[in-house]
Automatic annotation (TrEMBL), chain A:
A GO CC term assigned to this protein in UniProt: cytoplasm
Domain Roadblock/LAMTOR2 as annotated: residue spans: 7-92
PANTHER family with a match to the protein in the record: LATE ENDOSOMAL/LYSOSOMAL MP1 INTERACTING PROTEIN
Name of this protein: Ragulator complex protein LAMTOR2 homolog
GO biological process: positive regulation of TOR signaling
SMART domains in UniProt: Robl_LC7
GO molecular function terms noted in the UniProt entry: guanyl-nucleotide exchange factor activity; molecular adaptor activity
Gene name per UniProt: Cni-lmtr-2
Gene3D superfamilies: Dynein light chain 2a, cytoplasmic (3.30.450.30)
TrEMBL record, chain B:
GO molecular function terms attached to this record: GTP binding; GTPase activity
This protein's name: Protein CBR-RAGA-1
GO process annotations (BP): cellular response to starvation; determination of adult lifespan; negative regulation of autophagy; positive regulation of multicellular organism growth; positive regulation of TORC1 signaling
The species this protein was found in: Caenorhabditis briggsae
Pfam families documented for this protein: Gtr1_RagA (PF04670)
Length: 124, 312
């Protein structure tokens, strides 16, 4: 079982020093949880769908894709795979150091790996 | 315990036994019931319920000549090995007194032949009574039925409590039919207690307001867990009624209902196919609750509930 509250708590922990949003969604782009400031232009469930489609497009060209970094006009979004079936993404402002953002992404994904793996394992 | 239950459906001619059976178990809609003719003698129907349980419905024709037969020459055959008697009264009947006497004789026959049977009475066709008088009429009828139940039970000096039965008001035109049948079915399902416990735990994990378990074919409520009180006591039957209608229209289009999501700013509701024999409905107080997350948790819970269902 996945508790919405617990998940939101965990995801929220990275939202410090420049990082202002974190998503967990599945490979189809369906949002499981988003924590952070809600963008006016794009809803969080739309952005998760977009991120997933970017990921699948890139994955088709490169085998064994580990991580994507999207540098946008007003920020960066880094994205990685968790437990083979889920995707984790975090957004930061442009001023934030990329190394820090990536470090946050990887420690969060390492933390979520086991729990999510056990849930998807149950699903068979 | 055998998974076959013998259910007797009795009552005066034209009281609506076959109609309600058709709606609940044979996917009729209320309108179609006008096509039904009177039942001759006994119609047997085997209904699969919750997969491994078979309800053996004896729909007994209500005309007086049949009734006499049931009570005299076929008494043993009819009243032996009964698990449930459902007696249907027509609320508008002009000869309620006479109906009651028949009821008393049936009950006596039942008590002699299957002392452990449970008895439910439905005061049917409530839609014919004006709305503000319904409660009062029902109360009056119920009191009479209970009085006659006592009359039937006392001479036998049996300890059984079931003779003093439960009464329900019902009408095929609204959700009361589902309420009555859900209550009846509730007594037939094994492991209901375990299921409700698990549902409560499941609900706590999901932070849900309410979780309801429906039987797949009939959409009757089998078990539910309320984690936060709701002001409408009739909501289960309403949902049963609405979703079943919707499911029937899906079937007409040649597709199968799998899941439904409803949300507004205050809540999200998910109806999802659950185990082989059930649908589950989850209501969460958050309009933005994530559907994939709920679906995933539902999938995870499925195994637990499948295990409870298949437990002998």
């Amino acid at each position: 079982m996945l508790r919405q509250k617990a998940l939101v708590d965990v995801l929220g922990q990275v939202n410090t020093s420049g990082v202002d949003g974190s998503w967990l969604f599945n490979k189809e782009g369906l949002l499981l949880a988003y924590v952070g400031t809600e963008q006016k232009e794009v809803a969080s469930n739309v952005s998760s769908a977009l991120l997933a489609s970017v990921w699948t497009a890139l994955e088709r060209r490169a085998n064994d894709l580990k991580e994507t970094i999207l540098v946008l006009e007003d920020g960066v979004i880094v994205c990685t795979l968790v437990a083979r079936s889920m995707m984790l993404a975090i957004r930061a402002s442009k001023q934030t150091d990329l190394g820090l953002v990536r470090a946050k992404l990887h420690s969060l994904s390492a933390y979520l790996e086991q729990p999510i793996l056990s849930i998807s394992h149950d699903l068979g | 315990m055998s998974s076959k239950r013998k259910v007797l459906l009795m009552g005066k001619s034209g009281s609506g036994k076959t109609s309600m059976r058709s709606i609940i178990f044979a996917n009729y809609i209320a309108r179609d019931c006008s096509r039904l003719g009177p039942t001759i003698e006994v119609e047997h129907a085997h209904v699969k319920f919750l997969g491994n349980m078979v309800l053996h419905l004896w729909d007994c024709g209500g005309q007086e000549s049949f009734m006499e037969n049931f009570l005299v020459s076929q008494k043993d055959q009819i009243f032996k090995n009964v698990q449930v008697l459902i007696y249907v009264f027509d609320v508008e009947s002009r000869e309620f007194e006479k109906d009651l006497r028949y009821y008393q004789s049936c009950l006596e026959a039942l008590l002699q032949n299957s002392p452990n049977a449970q008895v439910f009475c439905l005061i049917h066709k409530m839609d014919l009574i004006e709305e503000d008088k319904r409660e009062e009429t029902f109360k009056r009828r119920e009191a009479e039925v209970l009085r006659y139940s006592e009359l039937a039970a006392t001479p036998l000096q049996s300890e059984r409590q079931n003779a003093v039965c439960q009464c329900f008001k019902s009408s095929i035109w609204d959700e009361t039919l589902y309420k009555a049948w859900s209550a009846i079915v509730y007594h037939l399902v094994p492991n209901v207690g375990t299921m409700e416990d698990k549902l409560k735990k499941f609900g706590a994990i999901l932070d849900a307001d309410e979780i309801i378990l429906f039987e797949r074919a009939t959409f009757l409520v089998i078990a539910h867990a309320v984690l936060r009180e709701h002001k409408d006591p009739h909501r289960f039957e309403k949902v049963s009624n609405i979703i079943k209608q919707f499911k029937l229209s899906c079937t007409k289009m040649g597709s199968k209902l799998d899941s439904i999501q409803v949300r507004n700013s205050q809540f999200s509701a998910f109806i999802d196919s659950f185990t082989q024999n059930t649908y589950v409905m989850i209501v969460v107080p958050d309009g933005n609750a994530s559907a994939p997350m709920i679906t995933m948790n539902v999938k995870n819970a499925r195994k637990v509930f499948e295990a409870i269902e298949t437990k002998p």
